[in-house]
From TrEMBL:
<dbReference type="InterPro" id="IPR050861">
    <property type="entry name" value="Dihydroxyacetone_Kinase"/>
</dbReference>
<dbReference type="InterPro" id="IPR036117">
    <property type="entry name" value="DhaL_dom_sf"/>
</dbReference>
<protein>
    <submittedName>
        <fullName>Dihydroxyacetone kinase subunit L</fullName>
    </submittedName>
</protein>
<dbReference type="Pfam" id="PF02734">
    <property type="entry name" value="Dak2"/>
</dbReference>
<dbReference type="GO" id="GO:0019563">
    <property type="term" value="P:glycerol catabolic process"/>
</dbReference>
<keyword id="KW-0808">Transferase</keyword>
<keyword id="KW-0418">Kinase</keyword>
<feature type="domain" description="DhaL">
    <location>
        <begin position="13"/>
        <end position="202"/>
    </location>
</feature>
<dbReference type="InterPro" id="IPR012737">
    <property type="entry name" value="DhaK_L_YcgS"/>
</dbReference>
<dbReference type="GO" id="GO:0004371">
    <property type="term" value="F:glycerone kinase activity"/>
</dbReference>
<dbReference type="GO" id="GO:0005829">
    <property type="term" value="C:cytosol"/>
</dbReference>
<dbReference type="InterPro" id="IPR004007">
    <property type="entry name" value="DhaL_dom"/>
</dbReference>
């Protein structure tokens, strides 16, 4: 269906521009995310996320390629496996919808994260404290609602929430069967979610802030789960 040329909002343009950096972030974090999922899951989490963004990048290089964020949404909703793939897809869908409607990227992020959290909670039925990606996303949404313009605080809440999962026992997902093994290690989904939020906040945050939070997040994750190729 060819309608009249649609206007792309500035927020959508900014969201689209995060795609290469998301791809790069999940390629470099794959070993530590995999190592964490091997402790109390089936070890596919890091690979699923990395391969999802690789598939997105491939779709964008072809003829008649979709818009970048449409590709992200479609790949994660329809192609990426594991419990987490479609849950990330719901978040990506919400961000895309809000970006199309919002005047600013900051509004799109705040509203899209809130809608995405609601969708993830509805479908996955996890609550804060269940040791899932919700433990990183929910604090970020809460901070965004109270401190609208403080995106450094949003990122900080996500990172703190993700690292706090080290002391939680899983009640949802595969890790719930291996609850004891997981204690002392952060939840891979929560670490992945916090990394996602670090990258999504980059366009509206001082670069040193997101870089510092990202390093803090991944160094803590690596200490808890030395990746295969670490020496
Ligand atoms: P699987 O166990 O199906 O292999 P993945 O490896 O794709 O799942 O993803 C694991 C992550 O998914 C967990 O670390 C957790 O953060 C998240 N997760 C699992 N179940 C749920 C749920 N019901 N709601 C939200 N997140 C969940
Ligand atoms: Mg898994």
């Amino acid at each position: 269906m060819e309608g009249p040329a649609t206007m792309t909002s500035a927020a959508t343009t900014t969201l689209d521009a995060t795609v290469p950096r998301l791809h790069e972030a999940f390629v470099s974090a794959e070993p530590v995310l995999t190592a964490l999922d091997e402790i109390a899951g089936d070890g596919d989490f890091g690979v699923n996320l990395r391969d999802g963004f690789t598939e997105v990048t491939q779709r964008l290089s072809g003829p008649d390629s979709p818009s970048p964020w449409d590709a992200v949404r479609a790949v994660f909703l329809d192609e990426v496996g594991g419990t987490s793939g479609p849950l990330f897809g719901l978040l990506f869908q919400a961000l895309g919808v809000r970006a199309a409607q919002s005047d600013t990227y900051a509004d799109a992020l705040r509203l899209g994260l809130a809608d995405g959290l609601a969708a993830i909670e509805r479908v996955g039925e996890a609550q804060v404290g269940d040791r899932t990606m919700v433990d990183a996303l929910a604090p970020a949404v809460e901070t965004a609602a109270t401190d609208r313009d403080d995106h450094a605080a949003l990122v900080n809440s996500a990172v703190e929430g993700a690292l706090s999962t080290s002391s939680l026992r899983a009640r949802r997902g595969r890790a719930s069967y291996l609850a004891e093994r997981a204690v002392g290690h952060p939840d891979p989904g929560a670490i992945g979610m916090a990394l996602l939020l670090c990258v999504l906040a980059e366009p509206i945050t001082a670069p040193e802030t997101t870089a510092r939070e990202r390093t803090r997040l991944l160094e803590a994750a690596a200490r808890a789960a030395p990746a295969r190729d670490d020496t």
